Description:
Structural class: alpha+beta
Amino acid sequence: MSLLGLDVGTTGCKAAAFSSDGACLATAYREYATLHPAPDRAELDSRLIIGLIRETLTEVAAATRRDPITAMSVSTMGEAMTPVAEDGAILGNCILGVDLRGAEIIDKLREDIGQEAFYAINPNILAPNYTLPKLVWLRNNEPDLYNRTWKFLLWGDLVAFALGCEPVTSHSHANRTLLYDIHAEDWSDRLLAWAGIDRAILPTPVASGTIAGTVRDAVADDCGLPRGVQVVVGGHDQCCNLLGAGVYEAGKAVSGMGTVECITPAYDGIPDPQPMLACGLNIEHSLLPNLYVSFLYNQSGVLVRWFRDTFAAADKRLAGGADIYDALTAEMPADPTRLLVLPHFEITGAPHYIADSAGVIAGLKTGTTRGEILKAIIESATFYFVEPLEALKSLGIDTSEFVATGGGARSDPWLQIKADILGVPFVRPKYTECGVLGAAMLAGAATGVFANVADAVQAFVQRDRAFEPDPARHRIYQDRYAHYQRLYPAMKDLLADMQAAP
């Protein structure tokens, strides 16, 4: 028997099957493009992605016939909802969080309810990247699509629904909509009334680890899965990532280095909201009862991918199947660069949520190499987190060590840069794709393969290597960070004017 984890992200989907002792038996991955139908708009083709997900399931199922899959769970991005009909037909694309449609609705919400009163219901920092403004925008601007929709489903819900389960969502995903009451663990009547949204068009919030159903026989047959595979409600990708990194208790933090880099500390219970709000930190359910998390996040992997596609498009296919990212990081200089990058290529993440900015590369000379530019991107993407990490320390939240996960965690140079800048160790587990791993662990714990998640962690999570900070480079980076802090204030007005220009 085996357990399957599925991770659906902004740029790709991955399925992986694991034996009950944590060995990875098979993986499959498909990449897809973000659609930009107009400036400041970003969508995914939901029909295409469901098809690609089924391809990954088919590939993994074929490789695990000797260890048939018995249960699965899903780790997915937050916010983005897809409109579906009752018969399962997908009616349109999902709108991503970086899409700025509905930004004016957040201004109105802030004016009518206020950030503090809102935070008491749904502890998120008001910003346009969540679901609520997108739904209101759709209702106001595409009423035919909105009125034809039976349910708007987040990605975890959509995948399970496409497999044959009822339309339910995890508490962690529901929180990302701005329509959820974290204390009642249900949709907020007050927020639904303010937005004019009928709860009937939303999935039912349930706890992660709930068994949503089984894969429909016809879908199982098409994908080559055994019949009767149980589908377990997963959660927001960063929450699955946390479990996959071995964190199931308060007091530890994970740095998820994927398309978006997200630092996730865990707490027992809901923290005091006032200091959390003052530091610009959200509060969200994890996968586990009474364990809550916050997110510090911004662009990281997506900037490295942009660099690859822009500066190394001709090198994507290297001789002998060599990894393009390894080849590019080998070009980086050993010492800290003198370049600065403002990592605002899209709307920034927590804690500032800056929408009217843009990316900047400063300090270029004719002798600048692409290796220096790549290293500067990684350096400045890390600089972004220095300020909010200091805020966490002020709240007594331990950030003295990070578990590094995701695709970026496979890079030794990247982890060393992060350790040198932040001055703390970065620990890499042996298996870094912790979103799929955490989903598979949750599926096993929910279906009785493991007595509890602690047993799943014992079986699945192993430490590979710790990257210790270099004191000399850390001192240099402290000076570089002082320059980085001056970059956005110096260009703020110009960048805002450029974004507002027709």
